[in-house]
């Protein structure tokens, strides 16, 4: 009987002994056991670093792995923020280093207005006569311009940035002209011939910030446009996602510094004498809403090449873009566009390839309008 009692007493102390040994082991090892959270150590590196204690030999290596894993996660989150940024987030881009605009008819701080298409006419400080020739031909003025926006959802603006000198005589001249015509979209961009790629990016971002349009069009100020034909043409592609519309080309990459369209980064395109990838010629092109939103959301990581049309085309490489080659957007001047107009197939845009626009456009654009124009009434009856 005494022996049995002794056995019971010893068994009673077993739990206390176990707890004591556990506490002593923790104190002497100075480590706590961390349960395994994930078994897949290849895909969950951060948790695998935490799930087992580091020894003296591999402690520095494990800390480095942890740091690298955190850096990788940070980069992934940053990229996701850029890619998933909603189009509306660019409305406040006035505080950004890339865009911010002042428009007389649509302010940057007002809610985005719905539109069918936004047409930005690229112009320069020295091009007042070109702008006036467009106002006298294919671009409505005054109340008609406002009505075109209200009834047809077509916004037309001359796009221009600022001079390098704050409040210069050039800027004041544009301010005065805008006060008279109210047809400018001012960009947070310093004007310069070698900055056209940056200007195009800023224009797209600013237009997206101001208007929720189905298409965004860029045209040079020495090109003639038939608005009704252009609107009807784009209307055919409203249901097509990722539409990149224009006259597609693939010109040579020019490596010589002495030529006009020299590409300093020619080496990126392979051996000397190679051609560019397919892209729309820069005189006029249109992109659909989703492509414009893509540019606005990713503006800070889109590379700019020397030539503006090449830059735009490069931004869409790797995307499921539909390259729509529309010859009606690159007709020649009379007799080419005139013959097509007489046949009932007016051109959407006309210019001279030899001049990358209408040669001597100030004088000649009026002739093109008379002989190739669709008539001022067409845009008001156009269905799109």
From TrEMBL:
Q: Which PANTHER family match?
A: BETA-1,3-GALACTOSYLTRANSFERASE 7, BETA-1,3-N-ACETYLGLUCOSAMINYLTRANSFERASE
Instruction: Note the InterPro entries from the entry.
Output: DUF4094, Glyco_trans_31
Q: Which family does it belong to?
A: Belongs to the glycosyltransferase 31 family.
Q: In which pathway does it act?
A: Protein modification; protein glycosylation
What is the primary gene name for this protein? LOC107902581
Species assigned in the record: Gossypium hirsutum
Q: Name all DUF4094 domain ranges.
A: 10-85
**Statement: the UniProt record of this protein carries the keyword Transmembrane helix:** yes
What Gene3D superfamilies does the database record attribute to this sequence? 3.90.550.50
Cell location? Golgi apparatus membrane
Q: Does the keyword Membrane apply?
A: yes
Using the record for this protein, list the coiled-coil segments as residue ranges, or answer none: none
Which Pfam families does the protein's record reference?
DUF4094 (PF13334), Galactosyl_T (PF01762)
Alphabetically ordered keywords of this record:
Glycosyltransferase, Golgi apparatus, Manganese, Membrane, Signal-anchor, Transferase, Transmembrane, Transmembrane helix
| Designated name of the protein | Hexosyltransferase
């Amino acid at each position: 009987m005494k022996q049995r009692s002794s056995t019971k007493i010893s068994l009673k102390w077993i739990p206390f002994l176990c707890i004591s040994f556990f506490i002593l082991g923790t104190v002497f090892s100075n480590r706590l056991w961390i349960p395994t959270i994930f078994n897949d150590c290849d895909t969950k590196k951060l948790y695998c670093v935490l799930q087992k204690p580091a020894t003296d030999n591999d402690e520095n290596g494990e800390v480095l792995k942890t740091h690298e894993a955190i850096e990788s996660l940070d980069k992934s989150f940053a990229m996701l923020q850029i890619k998933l940024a909603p189009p509306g987030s660019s409305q406040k881009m006035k505080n950004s280093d890339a865009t911010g605009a002042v428009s007389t008819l649509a302010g940057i701080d007002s809610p985005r207005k719905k539109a069918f298409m936004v047409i930005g006419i690229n112009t320069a400080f020295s091009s007042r006569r070109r702008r006036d020739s467009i106002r006298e031909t294919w671009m409505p003025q005054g109340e008609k311009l406002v009505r075109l926006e209200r009834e047809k959802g077509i916004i037309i603006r001359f796009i221009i940035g600022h001079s390098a000198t704050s409040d210069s005589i050039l800027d004041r001249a544009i301010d005065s002209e805008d006060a008279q015509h109210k047809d400018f979209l001012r960009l947070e961009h310093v004007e310069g011939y070698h900055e056209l790629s940056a200007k195009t990016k800023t224009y797209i971002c600013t237009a997206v910030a101001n208007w929720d349009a189905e298409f965004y069009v860029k045209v040079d100020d020495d090109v003639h446009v038939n608005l009704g034909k252009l609107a009807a043409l784009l209307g055919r592609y409203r249901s097509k996602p990722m539409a990149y519309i224009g006259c597609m080309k693939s010109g040579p990459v020019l490596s010589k510094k002495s030529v006009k369209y020299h590409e300093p980064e020619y080496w990126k395109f392979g051996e000397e004498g190679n051609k560019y990838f397919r892209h729309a010629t820069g005189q006029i092109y249109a992109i659909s809403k989703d492509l414009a939103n893509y540019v606005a959301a990713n503006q800070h990581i889109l590379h700019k090449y020397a030539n503006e049309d090449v830059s735009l085309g490069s931004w869409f490489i790797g995307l499921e873009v539909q390259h729509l080659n529309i010859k009606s957007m690159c007709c020649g001047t009379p007799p080419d566009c005139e013959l097509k107009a007489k046949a009932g197939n007016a051109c959407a845009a006309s210019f001279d390839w030899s001049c990358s626009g209408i040669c001597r456009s100030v004088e000649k654009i009026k002739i093109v309008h008379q002989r190739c124009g669709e008539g001022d009434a067409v845009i008001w009856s156009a269905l799109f």
